[in-house]
Amino acid sequence: MAIRAYSGRMKTSFRIASLKQKMQAEPRYLSLEQALIITRIYQANEGASVAQKRALSLAAALRELEISLDEEELIVGNRTAGVRAGVVFPEAGISWIDKELETLSTRPQDKFNVHKQDIDDFRHLVLPYWKGKSLEDTIRAEAGTVVDAIGRVVKINQKDHAQGHICPDTALWIRVGAAGIQKDAEARLSRETNPSKREFYQCVVTVLSAARDFMMRYALKAEALHLSEVARICRKLAGPPEVSGAETFHEALQSLWFLFVILHMESNASSFSPGRADQYLLPYYQRDLEAGRLDEAQALELIQALWLKFNGIVYLRNSHSAAFFAGFPIGFNVALGGRNPDGTDATNSLSYLFLKAQGALGLPQPNLSARLHEGSPQKFLDACSTVIGLGSGMPQVFNDESIVPALMAQGIAREHAENYAIVGCVELTTHGNNLGWSDAAMFNLPKTLELALNGGVDLITGQRLSPDNGTLADFSSYADVEKAFTAQIDYFFEKMIDACEKVESVHRRLMPTAFLSAVIDDCLERGLDVVAGGAHYNLSGIQAIQVANVADALAALKTLVYDQPLVDRKVLFEALRSNFQGNDELRKMLMDKAPKYGNDVAWVDELANTWVTYFARKFEGRTNFRGGRYHTGMYTVSAHVPMGANVGASPDGRLAKTPLADGGMSPVYGRDLKGPTAVLKSVSRINSALGSNGTLLNLKFLPQFFTTDEGIRKFSSLLKAFVRLKINHAQFNVVRKGPSVLPATPLTSPNWPPTFRTRSSPGPLMTMSDLTIFDVQRFSIHDGPGIRTTAFLKGCPLRCLWCQNPEGLEFGLADVAGSEKIREVSAAELAEELLADRVFFETSGGGVTFSGGEPLAQVDGLIETARILRDLGIHVAVETSLEVPPSALEKVLPEVDLILADLKVWDSEAHKKWTGHTNERILSNFRFLADSALAAGRPAVQVRTPLIPGHTALDSNLSDLRNFLAAWPVRWSWELLDFNPLARSKYQALGRSDYPFEHVGKGLPAEELHRLRKEYCQP
Hints:
By secondary structure, the protein is α/β, with parallel strands linked by helices. The chain is built from 38 helices and 23 strands. The protein has an eight-stranded mixed β-sheet with strand order 18-16-17-19-20-21-22-23.
């Protein structure tokens, strides 16, 4: 899949488009059919064990549930006759269904229609039998007091559904089939004398035999519809051991889908993961290609057919859980790429076909995950970047360089860690041998901090939830805050562990899963169900929620209350209790004057790391109910909204009940002001080993970034830096609207300074190496090659009507509105700041660009800074208007790598009218560049012309400029820049109504822009 920018989604075949339309058009309904079967089997087998009743009820469902298939389908099978039905599973939980039946079709999230007959059958046939017997009811009876006591701080999960979040041994299932595993279980049963193990093996045999009948039912259905190939495949997979293993790619995909349908029928749980499908499916694909049975287009259609099936199963959650995990997520997570056990790259042809399938369909399932590492091919990075740019949020990316060591730190063997998979959204697991219980609980750290500052009293309810260790009004030092925070974490931590153990104990009694156990390594060898500890690895994952809010709150306390101090702790304490009513100025100070996580401020980021580390280290030496380890994750999916609704006002200025930071590692919304590179640097300071259960970082980009091959390549460079920074995970969301622009300074009169030492504010004169800057913009992608940081230097002799940076026009430290970013720095200080993104420069071939204003107005400081950077191997560019003394231009040429030379208007009078100066000096300086700057040792020159509607974007103007450039025997790099109305919002922020381009939209029409670039810029 070669690099290519896409303006729209990739195409599907007519068959796939038709199937997709049918699936999406079908309304969602609650399904009671399996619940009635389960209830009947339990009633008929009251004397049997729970394990036997579970096996018998699954077997009955496999043989009795209504099935259907579409004549266009290539992959068949579902757990209901229709698609996307909400299956009622009485063994897990029905009390909530009884309460919510009438509101399922109207609730805010994840609506389901309900047939009246199903309401009647549920209330008369299902509910009476299961009331008090389900997993939900039993946990409520045995652990409800413990769970409720900590409920406002810790969300205990898995209380009303069976355990999922697991990656089965898909390769084994496809290779030997149901009959092959059944044969193994029968052999073990014949040799076993231990009664409990014999029961386990018998249950495995029962469900596998029924699974084969289930597949045969589809064979017969397909035969009736004259779908000969589908019928042949289903009949083969249902056959005896000598034929049940898949041999072709189509057979392997169908076998894979049957596995996951049956897993969902057994447990009705979320997040059964296919894992590294591009690895274990590759031999089948290659054999078919070599035999001529299949070509790439046919394979892609089969993959897309499977992708559609992944979207046909959704999860029925109660309204509370739906608020936390909205969007019907079921968690079919497919990983692609990554490394082989020997450390070599594992990317293959299927990796690219999977990306193409996602690019064409754009559906939420499967949750596609790209595993990256230092040796990931450029082609794969570009392919991932292309599909990300289409806007589905996929593939999300995972980092082998940090995840493998994190898993090994949890006792996982290297060969298994290298073969890791992802379950659900971002949770990490190993392939086919691990019950990770990855969503055991969510621990709300911001709520714990709230209680620490308020003496254990809930700011929302006024109730006491925990011991009183004093309040913020009592804490005379920041150390007192830390001590109280520690005490609250310790208090709720122990109660959380107790609740998790109680939940697992009920699962072991009520939710044995014979079918799942048959495809998890070591369960058959041990004769032990997976929920009883039969898996090779038995982890439990606890989420630490939410590091960004904790870091911001503690940074505000440390900076403004204790270090400076600017805020009285008693005043802040009362403001928190009143949710900042009447304290708007205080709240603004907390939000604006204290540094925030996500802006590459090392000590703030270390605050986040400190408290995650403290929390994670508390698990050391502890084992869960299955004898495995506890470990931490940092993700919330969509839980940051309901969890935030439970948290009172925070010292960072956050109001009560408002959302927490999203994701888990992401900054608080709107507080990351330095771009994605700064966010990545901040996240990299949190020890990746502490996220072995999974982390979630959300980053947002505009779609324009992905419209060119150059943009895609730069994004690929960002992915390389992500790998090098050893961040576990990132998901990139392509949004249609960017953030608002910060206020800027007003326009002032032009004035070229006689010396570069002037300043408007009192103080000593600048030295020759001092610089006045008005902004440093990280992740600049339009100011030279690669990913760059642009330093904007104050002062410009021109007054272009279209100037995007009016705050940079005035020379010196002018004290004007919006000047908070304006400052004076030494060359060494500026160089150090610019080097913050060095890793991104190295992965992209980028560097630093000096812009403005007119950067050559401060040529001596610029040169000193450039020398520091170039001595460290950093590429340096300067963007200049060329309205500068020739001596300044001559001095800077030997010190930089690239000149970005602005040529705006050819006609001198028009130039003066629109910029305040004629273009005589500009053209003279350009002639100097043309005559001497391209000689040996001189930098490259790129000509830039902004396309201003009605001014510069005229054929007459561009034709004259082209003729001027053609006068030299040089092939110029000439870039026509689309009009950017950046200054509009700056005028608005200043309360000004005289923005001269108010009538102009975002830029030129796309067709006109394309025409001008094609006519004037192409060689």
